[in-house]
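Data availability (excerpt). The following record was deposited with the supplementary files.
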Amino acid sequence: MIKMKEITKFYSTGFVKTFVLRNINLNVEEGEFLTIMGPSGAGKSTLLHILGMLDSPSSGDYFFYDKPAHRLSERQLSDLHKNHIGFVFQSYHLIDDLTVYENLETPLLYKKVKGSERKGKIAEMLDRFNMVAKKKLFPNQLSGGQQQKVAVARAIIINPKLILADEPTGNLNTKEGTEVMDLLKELNESGTTIIQVTHSEKNASYGARIINLVDGWIVDK
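Predicted structure:
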């Protein structure tokens, strides 16, 4: 599904290069649950953003289903985002002035899903995540756990092949965090590929494989 070859990321300031990722070689099979761990500043979020094609490497090759992501046009990348990739962030990234229902509807509008089908998909998500009674509320009227559930629901409503989760339980209490991780595990068991960044050993235990980043390098644990 994913093949990264010699991915490097750096930022230039004058004549100085600051390296964030160095010579990353990584393969991810369809249906995997992969965890990326490492200390702060190790390059975890940058790697996740490159995997999600929200950022570009400075050098190296990235293939997504054998397509060279590093050479795709903006339109082709946008199509991949709309159809194949769901994102779950620590800070939720919900749209504050939209209701729960409207937040869930947004990715379907981008995909130009017809009205009746949109209603069916949203109803299914609201029911699955026990949020039917909250559908007219705005994000600031929800608890952190409820907001993250909406974020997960929004990520999966397009039936993505890949979900990228950046510290998905970082702002949640233990109970809420467990609920979100259980949801991700359930999605993985139904065939969705999950790649998460976390500092939590407990969250890492939900996955089958861990890679460790230190100073931008993948290292053996």
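Summary of structural features: Residues 2-219 form a domain with the Rossmann fold fold (CATH 3.40.50.300).
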